[in-house]
């Protein structure tokens, strides 16, 4: 008779383990792609897309606390700064601070549900966008605050979707590819 | 969600130290970020080389998606066009008839213009485009309005060159890389372009609002002569932007100027032209009538 049905993506699981290379690098690669690719989608004349790199960054930390080290904001923020248009270093600063905040929340509130995670994420996203605008304005642009309102709304609403995508990538990350000997 | 079990340090000194050190590393990241921000605020061009190199490296992929973006837009407009065909055709025929008349008028004006310029002994400066290139990416998640152009030093581009599409001004070059360059779009809040009303030359400045519109500020304060629907073109004063490039159409009148919509929406433009930096001619030597001619 036929054995239990397996999905094609996972394949046979016995005697197999996830590849450590994929498991370690996929979060970093997905965050870097999220920083890079959205800029190609359109030539926008207003800030309309959410800061997707940052959304992926906090989503990975909420899904897998401790997978990204606290200092991950330094290299990933540097990469984001190359393409974001913000004053260079603003992502390094804000991503590092938010990593520390998330780590503290993680130790204080070990048991969480969807609503608390989303509320924490909303707080971080709003703070990130407002502080990004503040840094841009300190650097010389006099952008009014109403410019970022649509972006905040889009970012907050799209965060659960980013969480879904990150969860899918996490499944790929832990797919047992390697045959154990 | 249950907490992961292996993350509590407990009484292990080693685990406690490593937790402490990871916090220190995070704080160092924040301090480094703060230092970089201070440097980039003090000297905005400090990291332009790094940014240019990054844009050069990612250029092939960005170029490919730019082509895909254009194709997908064409498909959608083709489908929309199929449904609007009849009314569109009638409208276009009507407009074509009008445009033919206008064209004849424009020819006459051009001929007259040439004759008058010959009388005044003015020669037209060369206005060929330096390069034709494509906008490949933009900072759609930031408050600043930058775009990346897929031409750089290899096509002879230099800082300050104005960029325009068929419909009007798009921006100017801010940083030049090896094969890409960074464009400051006119909707950015730091972009300031001297403009005039196309009909009678009322002078003003056009500054980006950051949300896709432009703020037109009149130079002569007093009674605001602007009206909704007026078109502003670049005036060329101070150099940089060639005079007469169409730029914006007024949508809302405010006390000391107007709010305007950009004529050449950068998301609709496929290819853009890079023009030479325009330098106004020195005024002719003073004669008995000390008039100066701009062009």
TrEMBL record, chain B:
Cellular component aspect of the GO annotation: plasma membrane
Q: Does the keyword Calcium apply?
A: no
**GO:BP terms for this protein?**
regulation of cell shape
Q: Which Pfam families match?
A: MreC (PF04085)
Name the UniProt record assigns to this protein: Cell shape-determining protein MreC
Q: Which PANTHER family match?
A: CELL SHAPE-DETERMINING PROTEIN MREC
Sequence intervals crossing the membrane: 20-42
Instruction: Give the record's keywords alphabetically.
Output: Cell shape, Membrane, Transmembrane, Transmembrane helix
Q: Which residue numbers delimit the Rod shape-determining protein MreC beta-barrel core domain?
A: 139-274
As for family, the record states: Belongs to the MreC family.
InterPro entries (UniProt xref): Cell/Rod_1, Cell/Rod_MreC_2, MreC, MreC_beta-barrel_core
């Amino acid at each position: 008779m036929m054995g239990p049905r397996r999905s094609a993506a996972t394949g046979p699981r016995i005697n197999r383990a996830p590849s450590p290379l994929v498991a370690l690098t996929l979060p970093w690669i997905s965050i870097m792609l999220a920083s890079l690719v959205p800029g190609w989608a359109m030539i926008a004349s207003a800030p309309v897309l959410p800061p997707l790199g940052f959304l992926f960054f906090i989503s990975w930390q909420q899904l897998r606390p401790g997978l990204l080290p606290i200092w991950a904001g330094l290299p990933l923020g540097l990469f984001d700064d190359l393409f974001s248009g913000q004053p260079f270093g603003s992502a390094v600063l804000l991503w590092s601070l938010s990593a520390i905040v998330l780590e503290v929340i993680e130790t204080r509130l070990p048991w969480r549900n969807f609503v608390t995670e989303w509320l924490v994420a909303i707080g971080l996203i709003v703070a990130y966008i407002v502080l990004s605008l503040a840094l841009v304005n300190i650097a010389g642009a006099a952008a009014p605050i109403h410019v970022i309102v649509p972006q905040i709304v889009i970012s907050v609403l799209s965060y659960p979707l980013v969480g879904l995508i990150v969860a899918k990538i996490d499944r790929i990350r832990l797919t047992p590819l390697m045959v154990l000997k | 969600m249950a907490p992961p079990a292996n993350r509590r340090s407990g009484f292990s000194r080693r685990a406690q130290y490593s937790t402490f050190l990871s916090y220190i590393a995070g704080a160092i990241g924040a301090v480094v970020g703060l230092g970089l921000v201070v440097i980039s605020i003090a000297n905005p061009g400090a990291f332009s080389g790094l940014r240019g190199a990054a844009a050069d490296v990612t250029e092939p992929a960005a170029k490919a998606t730019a082509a895909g973006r254009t194709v997908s837009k064409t498909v959608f407009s083709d489908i929309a066009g199929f449904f609007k065909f009849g009314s569109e055709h009638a409208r276009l025929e009507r407009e074509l008839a009008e445009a033919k008349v206008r064209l004849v008028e424009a020819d006459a004006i051009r001929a007259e213009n040439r004759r008058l310029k010959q009388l005044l002994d003015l020669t037209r400066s060369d206005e060929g485009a330096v390069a034709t290139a494509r906008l490949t990416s933009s900072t759609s998640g930031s408050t600043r309005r930058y775009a990346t152009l897929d031409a750089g030093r290899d096509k002879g581009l230099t800082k300050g060159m104005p960029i325009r599409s068929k419909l009007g001004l798009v921006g100017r070059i801010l940083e030049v890389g090896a094969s890409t360059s960074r464009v400051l779009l006119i909707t950015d809040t730091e972009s300031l372009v001297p403009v005039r009303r196309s009909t009678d030359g009322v002078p003003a400045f056009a500054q980006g609002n950051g949300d896709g519109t432009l703020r037109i500020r009149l130079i002569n304060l007093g009674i605001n002569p602007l009206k909704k629907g007026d078109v502003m073109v670049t005036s060329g004063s101070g150099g940089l932007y060639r005079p007469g490039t169409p730029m914006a159409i007024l949508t809302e009148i405010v006390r000391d100027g107007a709010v305007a919509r950009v004529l050449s929406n950068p998301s609709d433009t496929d290819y853009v032209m890079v023009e030479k930096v325009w330098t106004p001619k020195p005024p002719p030597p003073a004669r008995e009538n000390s008039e100066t001619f701009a062009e």
